[in-house]
Amino acid sequence: MVWGESVFTVLPIPDDIANDLQSQKAKRIEIELNDTPYNLALTKSPVIDHTFVYTGKSVLKEAGIEPGDVIDVRLRVANPDMVEEPHDVLAALRESEAITQWERLTPGKKRGHLHQINSAKRDATRKDRIQKLIVALKTA
User: Fold this and answer.
1) pLDDT at 58
2) Looking at residue 15, which CATH number applies to its domain?
3) Three-class DSSP category at 1
4) DSSP readout, 53-96?
5) If residue 124 lies in a helix (H) or strand (E), which one and from where to where?
């Protein structure tokens, strides 16, 4: 699916499962794609008939999935406040004394920053993005 300037892979959630998740007031799900875990938002859109999750190329690559592959999927309701924080990011935040500012961010803001960091293809880019995060936190 093309959305703005990006292309996403859309994974529709069957209606019976989506209804069950909605009855539990789920906003995010822990989903395993080919045994690789992710925490993704349940999404609705006027251009798609079903509740769905979407992902980009980096997740497909990490999970070893090509468009059109038949895959194993497991899901469950996720704690919406849970954010997996990589050790290198936390270490840099502590070392630079930006951890307090980080801890004040909402889970959604943290996930947004971490997506930018985790989508880096090279280690140097990742380190640069961590430093940019630190500067942004300290100047906010």
Assistant:
1) 78
2) 2.40.30
3) coil
4) EEE-HHHHHHHT--TT----EEEEEPPTT-----HHHHHHHHHT
5) helix 123-139
